[in-house]
Specification:
disordered N terminus, 6-stranded mixed beta sheet, alpha/beta, 40% helix, 7-stranded mixed beta sheet, 562 residues
């Protein structure tokens, strides 16, 4: 894992607790569950219902469970970082940060967790083997596309192989529309679906089962993986958000995605008027994303915590609770539970889908794949980061942004470039930054020089950033603009409707394909979220809200998009 993954996961350790039933005045045992994002909603709903029963241990002690969800890669990095602190003596085993139950969205990251923990604590076997952890839910990896593209993907024996050379979907199927192949999957360093996708790509181009792929194969077949990755529109942390973005932005944004079957169901469940339905294409061989309840045999899991975990897992796997999973588009982990109404063609999936389930590769091979992806195969990017340095950024806002930008710069990969622009009443010239020592130094100087004063020429700054990127477009790369502002526009020479007209000239229906992301920083009353949403959504991006407490996590997630 790169420093980006480590720092992002450590930031995410402070993320929000989503268990709405947990009360501050509860004085009993609180049991923490750390789960992959695909299991997050199921865990939260089950925990809420379970806590409502006022559970107690056999010894009479009351307890509650609380779920925290993040990318599976982040779960692994977080647990390993905590264990490392335990080994060094900087954290005690009874610290509340340690999770009692861990769940990853697939067996590859489960294997990685065992591997990394055994490196820290040889012979201790703190993480149970995969077969020793009970299955909670599962979902297969599929290709997601509209019907006219999906039919062509079904005709080929191995869609990954055709993605190596195909430039348009008509190259895959003569009956398909002449759409450029624009492809999305989540970042394998942070997301289980992204990692399973990367491993499946290697298995495909090498003509080997994943467990047969070697470290030497990773190097040998790196060029073919790079050709597949060259068709990427966007990476991301969340598989469901990528699927929903496909529906929202259409096939010019992304014509095909590697996602969970459950993501297709979720995306089709929220269709708005005029939006096209998407279908799941099941490869002949694909990964089943098995989500298991892992209870560590480790010093940080007390006898009471283990007993509480066992009670909740039994509840989690009960037929009534498993129905929550099927409503969310997940296949149940308990045999005999009916799939329910959403596993139908109406939601783009097949109830009796048939495929050969792939197995987990060796952990050292997975490490080699991740390293190769980060250093070579990953699609390059150029992002203009536009920072509001107006007078309203004074106080604790600017220092938090400076710290976040410093981490952003520190974690730039070899394939990533950013251009930093700050604005107030004046819009300053961009500072080009990359992952070299000299490039990072330029970025640090920019960050150190930020001062809060002046007005907010938001519209002019957005247009100037886009114009600069048009003139310096990085070929065969992800090109985007990321705007961070804490106020409404004041003093721009153009109006919002004029900005909208200009941005349409470089959106995803053009060859330039410049994405826009906007961050409203502070309280929503201080800026206009509707304006920021409109700017982002015109150009295939999205709007987020942040504040000094959440900006690090938000920016770490945004950085993964590129």
């Amino acid at each position: 894992m790169t420093r980006l993954v480590i720092i992002s996961a450590l930031v995410l350790m402070t993320g929000c607790n989503n268990n709405s039933n947990s009360e501050d005045n509860f004085t009993g045992l609180k049991v923490k569950f750390l789960v992959g994002s695909a299991l997050g909603d199921f865990c939260n709903q089950a925990a809420k219902n379970f806590n409502a029963t006022q559970p107690k241990l056999d010894n009479g002690k009351a307890f509650q469970v609380q779920c925290e969800a993040m990318g599976s890669g982040d779960v692994v990095t977080t647990v390993v970082a905590l264990a490392d602190q335990l080994q060094k003596g900087t954290m005690q085993a009874d610290a509340p940060d340690f999770p009692t139950i861990i769940s990853l969205d697939g067996d590859i990251y489960h294997s990685q967790l065992i591997y990394r923990m055994n490196q820290l604590f040889p012979g201790k076997n703190y993480i149970p083997e995969i077969t020793e952890s009970q299955l909670i839910a599962n979902t297969p990896m599929v290709f997601m596309a509209q019907a006219d593209v999906a039919s062509g993907l079904r005709k080929v024996p191995d869609p990954y192989k055709v993605l190596v050379t195909a430039k348009t979907h008509r190259d895959i199927d003569p009956a398909a529309p002449p759409l450029t192949v624009n492809y999305v999957h989540s970042a394998p360093t942070r997301s289980n679906s992204g990692l399973q996708t990367l491993v499946a790509q290697y298995a495909s181009v090498s003509n080997k089962r994943p467990e047969e792929v070697t470290v030497a194969d990773v190097q040998k077949f790196q060029p073919q993986i790079q050709q597949i990755q060259s068709k990427i529109t966007r990476y991301g942390v969340s598989t469901n958000s990528l699927a929903q973005a496909m529906v929202k932005n259409g096939s010019f944004w992304a014509s095909v995605g590697s996602v969970y079957e459950s993501s297709v169901i979720v995306a089709n469940s929220g269709l708005q008027a005029g939006q096209q339905r998407y279908e799941a294409v099941y490869p002949k061989a694909t990964f089943t994303s098995n989500m298991r309840a892992i209870v560590p045999n480790a010093p940080w899991v007390s006898v009471d915590e283990k007993a509480a975990a066992e009670k909740f897992i039994a509840y989690w796997r009960s037929p009534d609770t498993q129905k929550i999973a099927t409503d969310l588009g997940l296949r149940p982990g308990t045999p005999g539970v009916a799939l329910g109404a959403k596993f139908t063609p109406e939601f783009g999936v097949e109830a009796q889908a048939k495929y050969d389930s792939l197995r987990t590769p060796k952990p050292e091979v997975v490490d080699a794949m991740l390293k190769s992806w980060q250093e070579t195969a990953k699609k390059p990017s150029l992002v203009v980061v536009v920072v509001d340095s107006s007078g309203s950024m004074s106080g604790n806002k600017l220092p938090a942004v400076q710290s976040t930008l410093q981490n952003y710069i520190k974690n730039l990969g070899t394939k990533e470039q950013i251009a930093l622009i700050d604005f107030d009443s004046e819009i300053r010239q961009p500072v080009l930054v990359d992952g070299t020592p000299q490039g990072r130094d330029r970025g640090y100087q920019f960050v150190n020089g930020l001062q809060a004063n002046g007005g907010t020429k938001l519209y002019d700054a957005a247009l100037q950033a886009r114009n600069w990127l048009q003139q310096n477009l990085r070929q065969n790369a992800i090109n985007g603009v990321l705007i961070l502002t804490d106020g409404e526009d004041a003093g721009s020479t153009i109006k919002l409707d004029e900005l909208e007209t200009e941005l349409k000239k470089s959106n995803f229906s053009t060859d330039q394909r410049i994405a826009f992301f906007t961050v409203g920083y502070g309280e929503e009353g201080e800026f206009n979220p509707d304006v920021l949403k409109k700017i982002a959504e015109l150009n295939g991006g999205y709007y987020s809200q942040g504040n000094p407490e959440t900006i690090s996590r938000l920016m770490a997630d945004l950085q993964v998009e590129f």
